Amino acid sequence: MTNTQSSQTGNRNSDTGYEHLAPMFAEMAKLQQDDPRRGEIRNELVTGHLPLAEHIAARFSNRGVPREDLVQVATLGLINAVDRFQPDRGTDFLSFAVPTVMGEVRRHFRDASWSMHVPRRLKELNLAINSASAELSQRLGRAPTPSELAKHLNLSQEQVYEGLEAGNAYHSMSLDEALSPSADSDSLGETLGEPDQALAGVEDYESLRPLIERLPERERQILTLRFFRHMTQTQIAERIGISQMHVSRLLARTLETLRQGMLGDEPD
Amino acid sequence: MSVGSGDGRPEEVELKIGAELTNLPIIRSLASSIAMRADYDLDSIADLKLAVDEACSTLITRADVNATLHCSFTVSKDEIRFLVKIRSTSDVVPSSDSFGWRVLTTLTDHANSWVERNGQGGQPEHLVHIELAKRRAEGPA
């Protein structure tokens, strides 16, 4: 985690906006465990440092884990950091908190990435298929078939089937996703607002609209591009900079969210 | 293994399963496995899977208690046909103006829905059907 190290150094001498909170740690350390003032200070410290948790969560966003989840995990990490920080050790709080919070978020990514145990060989196979699929899509101008993937990777078709099926064990977020750069939200901005016009012809538009508005931005874009712009998943994947398999998982999840939302909407 | 008999006759795969949303992953993975083994491209495999998911969810929400979902896939050389039906007290056909229907028509080459009325012995009983077809994508192969 070398970049963590450098960001600490950067924080130490610059204007962090948290300096006014620092003396409160010393004050809290002097109080008895059962002093009611202690709880108040703890609350103030957590609330005061919340932008830090949000900032760290933002650095990990657009990787397939909902932003709210990340903020929640980062906030938990922050609370742990506030509780465990010892001001008499000579380090400042940020140097202690940043790696603690980042560690918490990273652990969340690791735990959320595969919903069931998948052998390492299959994970690697799945990653190989993912990158071969991106390469072949470029060359063919369409998504490849399993037999084309098999030929390209010098594998049997059965192995390709296995690797593709392993992809289904991914939860909402995939390993390839965690390793890829986060999506550039600017490139998505241009299609904002479009579902609105495109959806106007749909009879359940009124109940659907708030549900779509509540979707994370990227999910909303993928939905629009697939169902109102009629782009294929491979084209969407290329445009957004994630794998086709990931587009597929996000779309499946989005449709499920919408269906559930519509059901919850009915009077009975 | 590949789905489809060697001589080019359509192959049928049938599945009867409880009309529960928790059973969707089984139907979904069958759809995906069939399209994969028929060597459809990855986009078409994913589309069929999503469409089957959507069609079955639509029917499950109108199912009678303890109803069974009847699914069948017919795999011919260049087309996979999916037919799903459910027993329901409602005889309302899934609306073709709904968002769900737009999802189905975008993802497949053909989508159709109809209700078979079976009112025997006083109890109204209807069979709601959804039929989808996904053709092999054309393109520079």
CATH architecture of chain B: 2-Layer Sandwich
Count of the separate structural domains of chain A: 3
The quaternary state of the protein chains shown equals heterodimer
N to C succession of SSEs of chain B: EHHEEHEE
Order of helices and strands of chain A: HHHHHHHHHHHHHHH
Number of helices of chain B: 3
Strand arrangement across the biggest beta sheet of chain B = 1-2-3-5-4
CA radius of gyration of chain A is: 23 Å
- Largest sheet: number of strands, sense, barrel closure of chain B: 5 strands, antiparallel
Number of domains of chain B: 1
Kindly report the name of the CATH homologous superfamily of the largest domain in chain A: RNA polymerase sigma factor, region 2, helix turn helix motif
| Average pLDDT, all residues of chain A | 78
Largest interface: A-B, 38 and 31 residues
